[in-house]
Structures are given as structure tokens and as C-alpha cells.
Input
Amino acid sequence: MKKFVALIGAIVFLFILTGCWDSVEPKDLAIITSFMIDADEDGGYEIFMEVLRPESTTADEDGGSQGSLHYSGTGPTFTDALYNSAATINNKLFAGANKIRVFSERFVKKGMRDPLDYFLRDQLTDEGPLMIMYTGGEIGDLFFADTRMSDTLGRYVDSVADSQLSVSSSGVYSRTLDFAKDVLEDGKQPVMGLISLKTNAVKGKGEKSAQVVYEGLAAFKGTELAGTMNAEETRAYNILTNGARGVEETVRTDAGDVMAINARDIKTKIRAGMDGANRVSVNIDVKIGGHLVLFASDTLKSSNKDDRAIAENLFAERFASQIAAAVKKAQTEFKSDIFGFGKHFYKRNFSRWEQIADAWDDEYFANAAVSVKVECKLNDSGQIRDEYKPEKI
Amino acid sequence: MDKLGAREFESLLKEKIGGSFDVIINRFATAKREAVVAYVSGMADKNLIDRDVITPLKSKNFDGDVPACIGAAYETAEDETAAVRSVLEGDVVLYYDLSGVIYTADLRKFSTRAVTLPDSESVIRGPKEAFNESIATNVSLVRRKLKSPDLVFEQLKLGRQTQTTVVVAYLNGTADKKVLRNLRQKLNRIEVEGVLESGQIEQFIEREPYALLPNAGLTQKPDIVAAKLLEGRIAVFCDGTPHVLTVPELFAESFSTAEDYYSRTLISNTLRFLRFFAFYLSIFLPGTMIAVLNFHQEMIPYVFLKTFIGATSKRPLPEFIEVLMLTVMFELIKEGGTRLPKTAGAAITIVGALIIGDAAVNAGIVGAPSVILVALTAVASLLVNSLNEFIVLFRIIMMVLGATMGLIGIASGTMILLTYIVSKESFGVNILTEYSKHRKKDSLWRRSLPSLKFKKYNDLKDAE
Output
């Protein structure tokens, strides 16, 4: 009898402790795949949600991405807007598959403190989605963009952001957790990706007229927007933070030679310290390895080691100037250490860091002496050894 | 025995077994005095009786010396009760007037099924013969493979009415004496009206009648019995059935087949691994799937979740009920297909496949993922046939736990399952003995045969 009571007790406790009432059938879920927030001039907020359409895989003629439903809601506060947008959704909200969080520039300018607090605190939301700022007109227009081979906008942007790092590295891949960590941690300021729309040059049957462009970054100082960087500057940011998996660069000489590199092997070492004049000095040492994809020249030969060295120097100079320009912009315009020089500084000078941490961005980072050294190595000349000259054939 | 007259002996026999038309009791005149012959028509060879028993006695040369006259090997029975038993077993009984000696001769001839292919243990490589219903044939099939003088066949009779012949086989010096003593005791304690199948014996010798795991192995193949005898196990043959029991039955045996030892090491180990995987899959897959789908959707990759929702969004039943319903349906079809005649069984399979696989999905009663899930687990569970019932039961337990408590339920179920298996014994031997760290010769995988040499299931004791 005692055993029986113990068994029943164990089963009851198991049921209570495991929360069996939380069971939800997948078909009863409203799966959010992207989440967007806009703010209007009057201080109100508008929230847009893209929810997976359960059974549809065909294009929606009235607009919207394939296979998704769109909900929106407005309210005087961020959370009011959120609840109003969810008011018409009959299924249980599920944000575990959400890929992106897009914020309008107007909203971002109000500061990211409140939404970050909500994303980290609420049980529904998690820290996985990409943080993105939308620059352009109405944020809701994004739903009408062409999502190409993906069924939802969220999936499309997430995959573009990831694949872009291997191709051009002109966008950033910053998840909510990365952003929140950078806000809280010393020595690096947060960034988020930039998204905009451009008109489709070629419009096939069933394709939307607008196309998503994911490049550039929005730099922050704490939770406040500091400014934005273009594609080239963003690539420099990715090189400096070791986030670039692949870059392509083309140079033209005065003599009319054109050379292009596809670099896959990018390593950056940063050393930050204090010089005698109580000034922070940052030494950036970048090593870029890649192969030639274009070498059109009348005077230089790709098979010649010395000629390749000329090309390597040209690429190195180009990269170095781009990196220096990006750092300069962050120092002078943003006064925000988005590259994480502060982290490299306090690794070696922790006691000094504690004294200057508060003034790091505005004073020490902004006035730091930055030297950039780029070494470029062409590992091979591509699939042809010498220059391509039709008259030879 | 008293020196009865032929007429008296005849009436004595008729009194005991004369009511049946198939029992032939004939009194006939010999060259000297009268004699009585008794046998069961259909079990004894009438031609041999005529030639070797009746004709010599009727011959003019017969001088009253019965043993010198009988043309067949004979024995004597103690009394008329023993004589009756002999008659019923198929022997012919001869009594000569006033002699006081009852002669019995084994002149049996009854129809038995030929030695054919096993219907439940098909093999591609290896012996293809299977036991039949005749215990004499079955014993000879094993004796032919094991010509060892150590091979012992002990005979006993079980069942008050059926007097079924049961044979305990073992290799002297190899079999565990404790297990043998234990088995003998259990067999001797069986008191029952009839024994018709070895399954009945199995239930009598089990320590726990409600145990889920089998306590004795079951096979139809002589080579498997021979192999198990070599490993030190004991076999129990029962007359009238082709199924032979082997004890003790350890857990690892469910995952090995005869072919494991006839095919190449790596191939057989791959297949054995596949069987373990199938066992794991068929118990845990539906429960885990239900748990993840109902409680932990964030673990599911987006594309799979989307596809799943697309396939089930308009289904009326929860996933758990769908899978449970299909599992029960599959068991019904399987049972129908097995029990019915072959032609009707095929029809049942077609109807089942059409109704469940196609119509139920098209009608929107169940989702295609559930059908795939149940079909996969059903096929997987058939790979470990001897544990099929155990697998089905634990699969349903896991499904209930997964549907009510999520992965915590599955973890609890796993603990229950492991505790249950670990605590089980078969004839005093823990069923997981072969997975002991001291014994890795032939458990999860088997070594090559040269390094395996000769193994016993209880080698562990020697190692220690």
C-alpha cells in the first residue's frame, strides 16, 4: 500500500513539476518569422509581425512574402503596440523560429534600452534573431520585398546576412545576444545590420518590384545610435573584428591595369597600449590571403613574382586606407569604439583601464593614434598562369 | 504380474482403453495357445505388426518361446497400466496366454510434417532446416550437429492427461549445474492436465509470471540450439511443437541471429548495430517526437516545423492520439495478417495499407508524418522480433509520458526502462551479464571468430 501511494505521489508530482498543461500542438502555434518596430513623430509605436502561413507555399498576389501572414498594431507604448498587433492572432504566439528584428531609424533614434529589456526579459522572445535597422520609407514596405528563394522575409534576410559574410562582408551579423553583450560589456560598442529596399532592375513573372539590400551597419554608443557606415566601411569593420569570411576588391592603376582579389584568409591582430604622452596607441596588423580573379595588364605578368608583389602592395594599400578611414570615422564622427579596441587595451593594461574606462570612447578612443599595417598575399594566379591575350590564340 | 489368461488380459485392456474405436485389442490363436495384441490404429505400423509379431506366433514352428519369435526389438512392461501407456504412445503390446510377461515393441508409424524451412527465423546464409512436431526428429536433428558424448537428453513426461514427452538437453561439463538443477526442480513441480506447447512450459518455469521480458529463448532452428548448448545453455524440447526453449535467455541474445556468426565480422556487427538502433528507435522515436512537438518546438529546425505544420494544420486529432491510433491499428493489422490464412492475410495487408496509408491521410483523419512515424517504428521493432511485445508496450508508455510531460517524461521513462532491464534475471543469471565490462567478446559487437574462439555465456565467472 505504501509503495502504491508513493508511486501515485511520484506520478502526481511529475505531472505538476513538468507543467503538462503547457502542451501545445504545433498546428496551434502562430510562428513569428520576423518582427518589425516603427515609431511615429507623435511618440506612438507601430509593430509588424510576419507569421508563417501554415499550409500555403504559393505566392500571395495581394502582397506579402510567400507563405506568410502579416499582423500590425499601434499603441502609445512599445508594449501596447505589441499586444495590439497580437490581438487578432488566434493561435499561440511562438517566437522560437524568429530570425530578424527590424527597427526603423525613427525608432532606433529613441534609444534601444526599452526593446532590449523586453527581448531579454520576456519568455516568448529569445536572443537569437538578428538586430537590423531599416533605412528608407515605411518599414511595412519590407513585407512587399522580393524574398527570392526563401518563403519568408525573416528567413531570407537571415540567410543573406550569413552568406554575405562569405562573399563581400559588407553587412554585419549581429544577433540580439551579441548586441546586448556589447551594450553591457566594457571595451566594445554594439552595432546592428542595415537594411534598405531598392527597385528590382529585372522583374520576372511573380517577382516583387522591391529588393532587399543588406549592407552597412548602424553604430551605437550604449543604446543610442551614433551613426551609420556604408558597405566599404562595414567591410573594414568585419576585417578588424575578424568577422569577414571573404572579401573581393578591385584596383585600377594609372596605367590602366585592372586587378581583382578574392580573399578568404583574413586574420587581424590588434595591440592597444598607452604611449608616453598618455595617449592610446593602437597597432592593427592585418594579413589577407587570396587568389587573383582578374589580372588585366599590358605591362605586368601574373606569373611573375615581382609583378604579383606590385599587385599585392596595391591591394594592401587599398585595404589599409579603407580600414584607416573606417576607424577615423568611428573616432571622429561616432566617438564610439565599435571595433573593440578597448577590449584589446584592457587585456594588457587592466589597472589603467579601470581608471579610464568611463572616458574611453569620448577621450581615449577618439584621440587614439592608430597605425594600420596590411600585408596582402596572392596565393595563386587563378586558373590561368599568364595574362589572357586573344591575339596569342 | 500375475499369470493371466489371454482372455482375462484382453478384457482387462478393454476395460481400460477399449472404449475407443482406434484402439485395437485382438486375441488370436497361435500354434500353441492364445495371445493378445494391442495397439493404436494410426500410430503403429500394421504391416510390421503382422510381419514381426503376429505371423511368427502363428507359425507352425512356434514352440511357446515368445522372445525368440518376435522379429522386433522389444521391452517388457511391468503391469497392465504400463502396457496401456505404451499402447497410447504408439507401441504395440503383446501378451501370451498364462505367460505373465507383457512385451512392448516400438513399431510406431504416424504421419509427421517434414523437416521444412523455419517460418519465423529465415536466413540467407546458414542451415535452413527447422524443427517439426516430432520430438524424436527434433532430438535427432540436434544430435546430428553435436556428436559429443557429453550431449545429454533427459526425458520426462508432463501433463496428467497428455503425458507429453519433454526432453531437457545440455552438454555435460559445459552447462551451469545450478541452472540445470533449478530447471529440473521447476519442471518436476509442474502439475497440469495437459502440455501442448513449449510456451506453456515456459510460463510454468518463469519466476515472474507477469514479466515483460522473456525468461527463455525460443527457436525453431537446430543450429541455434546446438550453438546455445555449446555456450552452456540448456534446451527444453516438447513433443508436438517445433519451438524449442533455451535457458537462460539473456538480453544480448535478442540482438544476435545465427547469421551473425556465419557472415563476416564487420558485416554482422553493422547489422547488429542496426538492430540496436532499431530497438532504440522503435521505443523512443514516437514518444520523443510527441514530446518535442508539444513541448519543445524551439528544438525543431524551422523547415521541418513548417513542413510538419503544413501537413497537419487541418487534422482534427492531436499528434499523440493520431500516433496512438495508428499504432493500435498497425497491431490489429499485424495480428490479422499473422493469424488468418495466407490468402486472407495478404488481403488484410492490402486493405490496411490502403486505408491507413492513403485513405486516412486523404480524408484528413491523420497526418502523413504520423503515418511515416508509425510505419518506421513498426518496421524497426520487427528487426528485434523476440522483444516485439516489450517494445510495443514501452513505446506506448513513452508516448504517454512524452505527451504529458515532454522530454522530462521521456527521461523518466528511460530511467524506468533501464531500471527494469537491469533488475531482471533469467534462471539466476542477470540478463545484462553479457554487457559486463569483463565480457566484451560478443555483446554490443562480436570479435572475429578466431579471437572469439569458444565462448560461454557465463564466462564471466571464470574470468573472476
Q: What stands out?
A: Chain B has 16 helices and twelve strands. Chain B touches chain A at residues 293-295, 297-298, 300, 302, 305-306, 308-310, 312-315, 318-319, 403-406, 408-409, 412 (CB under 8 Å). Residues 460-464 of chain B have pLDDT under 50 and may be disordered.
